[in-house]
Amino acid sequence: MAQSTLETAATKNRVLAEAGCLVPGSFDDFSRLIKFLYKRLIKEKILNEADYKDVEAPPIPVDYSWARKLGLVRKPAGFLSSISDDRGEELVYAGMPISQIFSQDLGIGGVVGLLWFRRRLPDYANKFIEMVLMVTADHGPAVSGAHNTIVTARAGKDLISSLCSGPRFGGALDDAAKMFTRAYDSGLTPEEFVEKTRKSGKLISGIGHLVKSLENPDKRVEIVVEFAKKNFDSTSILDYALAVQKVTTRKKSNLILNVDGAVACAFVDLLRGCKLFSKEEADQYVKLGSLNALFVLGRSIGFIGHFLDQKRLGQGLYRHPTDDITYFLHDLPTN
């Protein structure tokens, strides 16, 4: 910004030096000149050296990134994750690089196995997971979850809002797995299990269907049972559930093992029989809600389909017909 020679730093330094100032030749000379001036003032008795004590320079903090690379410091973790890692050159699922997942054609079932169970499951297990997603993907527009999705979509809401519009969602698979497994492990016969549950005033989760019956079987259940029988090392829980079905259908033909019960029992057999989990680990995954997670994942496919279907069809705001409503009002009290 100097407009003339008089405004340059070199001229200013020269004039200051001519006036008697100690002017460093560079920034590095500052400390040398300060020390020189201090010693001179002490010598000329302008300063008393006893009045000044050496002061240690404050330590300069170590650069965190540099120290971390050297392993000198460790930052406490905010949370733990044991299923995936994206810090390297390639995304890793449970120790398996994403390129390897594709080269070995694990499919969506294999990815679920890696991310949910932290293991590479056998091919038949991956196929079974995909089968579960397929048979649970949709159950028509009339069931509550799909109905809620449709109504919400027609109200103009976004996909996620429509997808999550039904809070009472799933849970039957988890309950069925727990009930049948607990009864089997405790040694109850199917008859004793049914009688004990009846006396407690509870329903058997995974048993019963509004439409399907022994005379009109659910094809989805047949597909699940057939696959498990053909591919699993053991189907002890599923066999137990089918034995319970023989007891319940004596009372009523539609008290059959439904798709929730079939999937739940078969999945417990899969976890226990694939030799990758201990019995305790298999039971833990049931308690964690992995079965309901499969149902939610599968049924979301259908819900998304219903959302897109309503948008594609250009359906307007839904209004429920009044002839399907029972109006039950009380007269206001009069004085």
TrEMBL record:
Mention one GO molecular function.
Answer: ATP citrate synthase activity
What GO cellular component entries does it have? cytosol
Which keywords appear in this protein's UniProt record, sorted alphabetically? Lyase
List the signal peptide residues: none
Q: Which Pfam families does the UniProt entry name for this protein?
A: Citrate_synt
Give the Gene3D superfamilies listed for this entry: Cytochrome P450-Terp, domain 2
Q: Where are the transmembrane segments?
A: none
Q: Which domain of life is it from?
A: Eukaryota
What the entry lists under InterPro entries is as follows: Citrate_synth-like_sm_a-sub, Citrate_synthase, Citrate_synthase_sf
Keyword match Lyase: yes
Q: Name one GO biological process term.
A: acetyl-CoA biosynthetic process
According to the UniProt entry, the coiled-coil residues are none
What is the official name of this protein in its record?
Answer: ATP citrate lyase
Q: Which organism is it from?
A: Reticulomyxa filosa
